[in-house]
Amino acid sequence: MNPEEVEFLGEKQLISIIPTFNSSTIHLVSGDIGPFRASLPVNVPLWVAVNLKQQRKCKIQPPDWMDVEQLELLKEAEKASRNFVKMPSEHYMIEGKLLLSIATDDIARADEVRTIIKDIWDIRMAKLRSSVNTLITGKSYGNVDNLTIMEINSMRPLIPHAMDQIHRMKMERPRFSTPSQSTSLGLLNSSTVISTFK
């Protein structure tokens, strides 16, 4: 799965908007949305919310987790934990990126929200690199619980190649291993026997 496909999945997340127009239910392949009544909240997929916002036909109600205080608590929990903390949304980076690019006027303290989301991403990426490094340097597993699809996808190109190389090195190791103690003693004894007959 490439980043565009992951973003496509993230854009299906439902989000609440307050439309500025009236319309009957819209029938889509993925399901029906609406009806739309001006000033009454309605849940729509993220891609619809973005499209309507760009046309200035709605106000976006940001997800509850997109709040500076909640994000600060999440950031501190992520810093304090050795493991990955469960995120409030499976697609937090995609939601954050899209909403902060087109709806900053609808999000309180948007610049701070953007900074904290980026900080959380950086902390989690550092943990992920550490887990992959632990895996590559000899442990049989790495801790990857509570990762989002985007985070997993960021390491997908590296891990199969790295694991393949590790497997090849392990298969080659017996050929280049040092002689065992019994082999060394056998060689020592045979050389002693040879020297006594000289």
TrEMBL record:
Source superkingdom: Eukaryota
UniProt-annotated location(s): Nucleus
Primary localization: nucleus
Keyword list, A-Z: DNA replication, Nucleus
GO cellular component annotations of the record: CMG complex; GINS complex
Gene3D superfamilies referenced in this protein's UniProt entry, alphabetically: 1.20.58.1020, 3.40.5.50
Pfam family, one: PSF2_N
InterPro entries given in the database record: GINS_A, GINS_bundle-like_dom_sf, GINS_Psf2, PSF2_N
Biological process according to GO: DNA replication; double-strand break repair via break-induced replication
Domain GINS subunit positions: 65-166
DNA replication complex GINS protein PSF2 N-terminal domain mapped to chain residues: 2-61
Family listed: Belongs to the GINS2/PSF2 family.
UniProt subunit comment: Component of the GINS complex.
Protein name: DNA replication complex GINS protein PSF2
